[in-house]
Amino acid sequence: MISMEGAEVAVIGGGPRGTSVLERLIAHRKAFVGPQEPLTIHVVDPFDPGPGHVWRTDQSRLFLMNTPSLFPTVVPVGGAAAEVPASPVPFDFESWRTLAAAGGVEGLTPEERAEAARVGNAGFPSRALYGRYLAWVYAALTADPGEGVTVIHHRREALSLRRAGARWELELDGGEVLGVDGVVLALGHLPARLNPEQGVLQDGAARFGLQYWPPAVPGDLDWKRLPAGKSVLVRGLGLNFFDVMIQLTEGRGGRFADDGTGRLAYTPSGREPVLIAASRRGVPYRAKAAITSYIPRSVSLSYCTVDTLGAFAEAGIQPGFDHDVWPLLHRDVLAAYYRTLARVRPDAFLRPADAALDELRTALDIAGPGWLPALQEFLDRNVPAKLQLNVEALAQPFAGRRFADSAALTEAVLEYLDEDAASSARGEDDPLKMAIGAMNAGRTVIKQVVADGGLTDSGWYAELRGWFEPLVEGLASGPPPLRIAQLAALVRADLVRFVGPNPLFALDPDDGVFRASSPWVGDPGFTAGYLVEAMMPANQVSTSLSVLMRQMLEEGVVRPRLRMAEDGVPVVSAGLDVTLPPYRPLSGTGETQPGLYVCGLQLASVQWGTAIAAESGASLNAGARTLQDADAIAEALIASIRDSPDLQTADSRA
Ligand SMILES: Cc1cc2nc3c(=O)[nH]c(=O)nc-3n(C[C@H](O)[C@H](O)[C@H](O)COP(=O)(O)OP(=O)(O)OC[C@H]3O[C@@H](n4cnc5c(N)ncnc54)[C@H](O)[C@@H]3O)c2cc1C
């Protein structure tokens, strides 16, 4: 029951998603013409609201974003802004950064101001600086939340959520219990149970006095605990790896400088450990291309578009990924590659490049499966074998290769890194990076189309998430180019070594050490007393260690969504079971519950790619989808408060 003092809602989680919900609540309130009841918004987060956990402003400034300044926003701007009530703080990160660089943001440290000025719109800011932006947006929102609105931050963890009559009871650590009319779960990245293999390594570490570092947010860790000169096994060569790498080298006083040949050289401080790095593919994520936009300017999609993918649903077909979606995106990826090749190296074709491109277009335009033989004919007639692009092979760069020893492997990885750095530096003129750019552009389209049941369950699991996601992540979600050049320098300085593809990690009880080896490398592998999992805890509600999530699951406040695998066996999906937007979690018995909403990572059951920030200027149902979700939740909450019979009674009494 809504009290005479007005309505109260709780936003659990004050990270980017929670901040977007707060911003949308305030925007809707401000846009409404007419009398409104008082509204108290409780933001619950043990971390500073705005940055929350991931974007803490006190983390190492060496931890960079993997999206450029021009990309992220936490509020609707540009095209997205026109579709919803105006933002009271209409700043994306880039416009805030420009303001900060010009001295227009109060309270920044000299270091923060200098970074804002230095990083540029296509550069990669530190996560701490993005956290400053988020904190600034939050502060601006709460400084003027509008008439009748009070925002209270509780620096607490929410421990339990239960229905209590017509309201919700939210228990916080420390014992306080909030009674609220609406609740938004914006929980983001949660701690997760280790998988059985990780559990064995952790137990073994405790027995033998080794250090096992489970998956974690890099900003949480005390890196000083890894001693100089020791070997440290690092599992994972994705984004967290680059945080580990830079913190333990430049972060320990080492210096990178141009070696005079266009490559970087590293001068150690002597305080670095030696990193023994491993991942399934054996090589790190590829670097971002050095370009001035998020999607390369020369890339446009002709086949994998919202219209073509949307046509399946219009025809009553729920598409599969391999059968329906990938063949379209595959065409665009090939087109981007060969068009760029024709532009930068027309002589590389066996026939005149213009004619070759015409032939390619004709092949790609064939609607049915006939496009593949036609493509093969195009390749045979026009492109030397070593310049032909095999997209699937990019997933396994060392497939079929054996290495006599780790020196041979290191040489191969170095070659790969140098080539990747050079390829990034060519920017829009690099055919492979443009092919990857097309794949990244397709990712946004696919994300839009597969949401809310737009893909078959088996297409979702075995195909989209099974092989495409790791492929596109490894190719398009990599670090800034600088990090790859730095990694190559560290390999030359013998401070980073590699285990090889398909690595095996084990605890050796005889010697009391961790072992890592690859079946494809002749050496016996490496041993170490330290093992760092360079990855985030799994985003999976059913294995979450969050006290709140576990309580909600156990008491049936929420439930995970089940999907059907290829063989018809139900599979517990990563996210919660929810309604269509505005997303409302279903209870254990499948019912919606008044006033309860969810946004962000726990929607991994119905959306693909829930973690990435909203893209500035993108439309609300595409790159700025998280803002659309926040807007829909805010609108629904405000409407339910306005329409509440309790408030109308209170109104008529007033
Ligand atoms: C290390 C890292 C780097 C990233 N880099 C990028 C990048 O460069 N570009 C990009 O676009 N995306 C990046 N991402 C993706 C990132 O997930 C999103 O941009 C964003 O942080 C998601 O926002 P969120 O609010 O949903 O989750 P979070 O940022 O995780 O925030 C959730 C908040 O909820 C709080 N919370 C959780 N449970 C409770 C509870 N029970 N009680 C109270 N509070 C609670 C947490 O403390 C946290 O502050 C990165 C993610 C990580 C982890």
TrEMBL record:
<dbReference type="InterPro" id="IPR038732">
    <property type="entry name" value="HpyO/CreE_NAD-binding"/>
</dbReference>
<dbReference type="InterPro" id="IPR052189">
    <property type="entry name" value="L-asp_N-monooxygenase_NS-form"/>
</dbReference>
<dbReference type="InterPro" id="IPR036188">
    <property type="entry name" value="FAD/NAD-bd_sf"/>
</dbReference>
<protein>
    <submittedName>
        <fullName>Nitrogen regulatory protein P-II</fullName>
    </submittedName>
</protein>
<dbReference type="Pfam" id="PF13454">
    <property type="entry name" value="NAD_binding_9"/>
</dbReference>
<feature type="domain" description="FAD-dependent urate hydroxylase HpyO/Asp monooxygenase CreE-like FAD/NAD(P)-binding">
    <location>
        <begin position="10"/>
        <end position="189"/>
    </location>
</feature>
